[in-house]
Design brief:
Elements lengths: L2 H23 L7 E8 L8 E9 L5 E8 L9 E5 L10 E9 L9 E8 L4 E7 L21 E2 L6 E3 L4 E4 L6 E4 L5 E3 L2 E3 L4 E5 L3 E3 L2 E3 L8 E4 L9 E12 L2 E11 L6 E3 L3 E8 L2 E7 L2 E5 L2 E11 L15 E9 L3 E16 L2 E11 L14 E2 L2 E2 L12 E9 L7 E9 L2 E17 L2 E11 L5 E10 L4 E12 L2 E12 L2 E11 L4 E11 L4 E12 L4 E12 L8 E10 L2 E8 L3 E8 L9 E5 L19 E6 L6 E7 L6 E4 L5 E3 L5 E3 L4 E6 L4 E6 L6 E7 L5 E7 L6 E9 L5 E8 L5 E8 L2 E9 L2 E2 L14 E8 L7 E10 L5 E12 L12 E5 L2 E5 L9 E8 L4 E7 L4 E4 L8 E8 L9 E5 L5 E2 L17
Antiparallel strand pairs: 1-2, 2-5, 3-4, 3-6, 6-7, 8-11, 9-10, 10-15, 11-14, 12-13, 14-17, 15-16, 17-18, 18-19, 20-23, 21-22, 22-24, 23-24, 24-25, 25-26, 26-27, 27-30, 28-29, 30-31, 31-32, 32-33, 33-34, 34-35, 35-36, 36-37, 37-38, 38-39, 39-40, 40-41, 41-42, 42-43, 43-44, 45-52, 46-51, 46-53, ...
Length: 947
């Protein structure tokens, strides 16, 4: 090696030795390290906090750690800081983990940076800026729904009065009805079965239910009032302790209470309850009673028809023993309390001593009484009341009585008497003797003699007589009646003929005061021992001016086929009128054919024609005209009358009229359909009626006015309306449709704001079918009786009859004003409801054993089945019952040992608790299945609790 390289190496070694020792001794900046573990949370929630955690390593301890937030450009005056000095226990080593918690601020805050600065004891320093994510919007906490309680809970509501559809319950002792709510479990309180989550009320206070007073509950108990449900739409009231409820002197309940309250639009019936034995007016009472609940014009009422046992002088029949009952009524009102509405005591087929009492009836109806009771009617003659008087207003108090006695004579004659008082005045009376067999001449006997008299509201005088021929084999009865109706009158003669108690024929002729004659005659002949029956009749009218007449004749050949009815194999009818002649023949297996012939060729159409059906015959038929009155009428206009309306009926068209006032001023119809002077009168013609109406102003002169028909017009009658007409619903027909519904056709008249509610009523039955009806204008010449076409309203509606009462169902209309107050009610029409079908035997019955449970399973019966009644007899001595709704087909019987046999009986039931035939099956001890083989592996339906 040369000298120069050796020198160079020595210098290098010397330099390395010197510089190396210097590097070790000098402070090293690289010895300070900052390692971030991150922010938590990141992102943080707006307005919340976050924590930054860092790991620090230094070359020489102790050291200082500083945190600055949240602006990397400003660490001199930061908003948030944290400093760990060299004296802190956390900074004494060469390593440490440090955390800084700070506020993250709002979502829009800039400079989201935390600066960390570390300085060790040699002065070495490191700084690091760490950025966190923008804060997020706070998410509201998810509400925690507490679990529903299984038992009942109290609701912050305790009213004094609770109202459901037809009932109002009002506490009277100062307390209230505490509202409650059932939990998730069904339960029974006070005898009332409550469904899960059902509302109900409780009180221990005394209260009134539609005026029925209930005492305070016995100590430690409460009344329970269940709110309406699908199974109990009117609500349920009960208490499982004995109480006593009295209506004046009558006790209607003594014992536990459980009433399924009725529902309906305005009226409903409580299921029948047994009346405790007691006395009313000294007469024993008892039996069952069905209370009627009503709501009208904001009033809640109840009526109780009560049976009364008559004194012992009344017997079921001569020489026998037994009690006889009549009826009366007690009513309640929420505002007025308890009152006696009226009463009717009727005895049929009884006796007083040796005299046969065929019928005895006494009735009292107070003013505005409910129509639960009908007044006693006169005894009948030939199937109709002996005298038919116009009934008095419902607003009048009335007394009625009638008696029909069988006299102990060889002919067993009947004696009848009847009479009535209305509004404190004599209304009607009469009497007759029938089957008297009083000899007049050889072979002729006087069978009947009688009279009848009506004085209010219309005058009717009637006389009756009957003659017997051939020792009574042939009997003919005749009656003559004179009656006044408003300004008109009529005389009517009617006859009735029978042979050996078989009706043969009857006839009637009526002559009206305007000259119109109405008549009808009917006859029936039996041939071949009654197998063949020929029925015939003629009816019609004759009008003198203008001369019009119409006669309709009919004859039918029918066969008596016993249980198969009496079909008519051939029928014929004919019409002879002032227009022409028409006829129709109908044959059961061929069809119908008809024709017509006009006396004169009409302007439009054929003079004669024929074809299938009976429509051709009706071409010549003339409808019965209105009664033709005098051609000048006088009518009074009362003083202080706001508006007076005169309706004048014409013949074929609205009449043109001349009206004269008491001062001599006149006005008349103009050429148009409407005439007015725009001040005192308005004349309007209605061609559809045909009718002309005159509206007078309130300043019309009081006194006698006159109306006269102008040339070319005729007056058929007039109606004077000094005040607004009473709302009326009187016309209605009902028919069955092919799909099992009923179609109701109504014609009625309403005042402004009035509406109509319709219900179908039967024994223990009510079906609301419509409410709030206002109707539509009538077409086709239809109108309400006694009303103009303009006043009339018509409505056709369909409904499906509800399950229930077998027999005659009445369609009842109730007229309500704009405030809901009842104005009137009418029984419009009726129909016969067939007997509901009995459910068939329950099919597919089987028993399945699963562990310690036995499942009773059955098939669906269908039809009108609403429930299944099951009864199980177990070998361990248990006898269990179960009632399932129509949609439930299984019952679980628990705790059954395998060695216990089970026998099941089941019936399908209707809504009225009528059941079909019983089905049964037995599961032997140790067996796991009993029933049809094909269903052994069938899936078990879900079992349900008993209802």
């Amino acid at each position: 090696m040369s000298v120069r390289p050796r020198l160079r190496a020595a210098l290098l070694a010397t330099l390395l030795a010197v510089t190396g020792s210097a590097i070790v001794a000098a402070p090293s900046h690289a010895a300070v390290e900052i390692l971030s573990r991150g922010f938590a949370p990141d992102p943080a929630v707006e307005g919340g906090q976050a924590t930054l955690t860092v790991d620090v390593t230094v070359g020489q301890a102790p050291y200082i750690v500083e945190f600055f937030c949240c602006d990397a450009t400003n660490i001199d005056t930061p908003a948030q800081t944290k400093v760990l000095q060299e004296t802190s226990p956390e900074t004494q080593g060469l390593r440490g983990t440090h955390a800084f918690t700070f506020d993250v601020g709002a979502a829009g805050t800039p400079n989201r940076t935390v600066t960390v600065r570390v300085t060790d004891s040699t002065g070495a320093q490191q700084r690091q800026a760490l950025t966190f994510q923008p804060p997020t919007r706070a998410t509201p906490p998810v509400p925690v729904t507490p679990p529903e309680p299984a038992g009942p809970t109290r609701v912050e509501n305790c009213p004094k009065t609770v109202e459901f559809t037809l009932v109002r319950l009002r506490t009277t002792g100062g307390s209230c009805w505490q509202e409650m709510r059932a939990g998730t479990d069904a339960l029974t309180l006070g005898g009332v079965a409550l469904e899960p989550r059902q509302r109900f009320f409780q009180t221990a206070d005394r209260f009134v239910l539609n005026g029925i007073p209930f005492p305070a509950a016995p100590d430690g108990t409460t009344y329970v009032l269940g709110a309406p449900t699908q199974r109990a739409p009117g609500g349920t009231l009960g208490i499982d302790r004995s109480i006593e409820v009295k209506l004046g002197p009558v006790t209607v309940l003594r014992g536990q209470l459980l009433w399924k309250l009725p529902s309906g639009t305005s009226e409903g019936a409580l299921p029948a309850i047994t009346l405790p034995a007691g006395r009313l007016g000294g007469l024993p009472i008892g039996g069952q009673v069905q209370a009627i609940f009503r709501k009208r014009a904001g009033r809640f009422t109840t009526s109780f028809p009560i049976s009364v046992t008559l004194p012992s002088i009344f017997r079921p029949s001569p020489g026998t023993t037994g009690a006889i009952t009549g009826q009366t009524e007690i009513s309640t009102d929420d505002a007025r309390g308890v009152s006696v509405d009226g009463g009717r005591i009727e005895v049929a087929n009884a006796a007083i001593g040796k005299v046969a009492l065929k019928n005895l009836c006494f009735s009292y109806l107070s003013a505005n009484v409910s129509r639960s009771f009908a007044a006693c009617e006169p005894p009948s003659l030939n199937g109709a009341p002996a005298v038919q008087c116009t009934p008095p207003s419902q607003r009048q108090e009335r007394f009625d009585g009638s008696v029909l006695i069988g006299l102990p004579t060889p002919s067993r004659a009947d004696f009848a008497a009847y009479g009535g008082i209305a509004g404190g005045q004599f209304a009607y009376a009469g009497g007759f003797v029938d089957n008297a067999r009083i000899p007049l001449v050889q072979g002729i006997t006087l069978e009947r003699v009688g009279f009848g008299l009506c004085l209010r509201p219309d005058v009717v005088v009637r006389g009756d007589a009957g003659l017997g021929f051939a020792n009574g084999l042939v009997r003919g009865d005749v009656s003559v009646t004179y009656a006044e109706q408003g300004r008109t009158f009529f005389v009517e003669a009617a006859g009735f003929l029978r042979v050996a108690d078989i009706p043969v024929g009857n006839g009637r002729v009526r002559v009206n005061s305007n000259g119109v004659v109405d008549f009808d005659v009917n006859a029936s002949v039996l041939l071949a021992g009654g197998f063949v029956q020929i029925n015939g009749g003629v009816s019609g009218f004759v009008q003198p001016r203008p001369f019009l007449f119409n006669l309709d004749g009919r004859v039918a050949l029918c066969l008596n086929l016993g249980i198969f009815g009496s079909p008519c194999v051939a029928q014929a009818s004919a019409t002879v009128s002032s227009l022409g002649i028409g006829g129709c023949g109908e044959f059961r297996f061929i069809g119908a054919f008809s024709g017509f012939f006009f006396y004169q060729t009409p302007r439009n159409g054929k003079r004669f024609d024929f074809g299938a059906g009976c429509g051709f015959q009706s071409r010549v038929r003339i409808a019965r005209p209105r009664q033709i009155g005098p051609q000048e009428l006088t009518f009074p206009v009362p003083p202080d009358n706001d508006q007076y309306v005169l309706h004048v009926q014409g013949v074929g068209k609205p009449p043109k009229i001349l009206v004269s006032s008491p001062t001599g001023r006149t006005f008349q119809s103009g050429p148009d359909a409407q005439t007015t002077d725009n001040a005192t009168f308005l004349i309007v013609e209605n061609p559809e009626a045909p009718e002309t109406s005159v509206f007078f102003s309130k300043d019309a002169v009081a006194g006698g006015w006159k109306v006269r028909a102008l040339e070319g017009s005729q007056l058929a009658g007039a109606e004077f309306q000094a005040e607004e007409k009473r709302p009326t619903v009187v016309a209605g027909t009902i028919r069955a449709t092919r799909d099992g519904q009923r179609e109701l056709d109504l014609r009625y008249r309403l005042r402004e704001g009035d509406t109509v509610t319709l219900d179908v009523i039967g024994k223990d039955f009510q079906q609301p079918i419509a409410s709030g009806l206002r109707g539509r204008p009538c077409t086709g010449g239809r109108r309400a009786p006694g009303s103009t076409t303009a006043e009339s309203r018509c409505r056709t509606l369909r409904f499906r009859p509800a399950f229930g009462y077998e027999g005659r169902r009445i369609v009842r209309a109730i007229v309500l004003d704009a405030q809901g107050a009842e104005q009137d009610r009418f029984d419009v029409t009726s129909y016969m409801a067939p007997a509901p079908a009995t459910p068939r035997r329950t099919p597919a019955l089987r028993l399945v054993r699963r562990g310690s449970d036995v499942f009773a399973v059955w098939g669906r019966t269908g039809g009108n089945t609403t429930r299944y009644a099951a009864y199980a007899t177990l070998g361990d001595g248990r006898r269990l019952g179960h009632t399932a709704p129509a949609d439930c087909l299984a019952w679980r019987i628990g705790r059954v040992r395998r060695d216990v046999p089970v026998t099941l009986r089941i019936q399908s039931g209707r809504q009225d608790i009528r059941f079909g035939r019983t089905a049964s099956v037995t599961l032997r001890a140790g067996a796991s299945y009993a029933g049809p083989r094909a269903l052994r592996s069938a899936r078990l339906p879900r079992a349900c609790a008993s209802i």
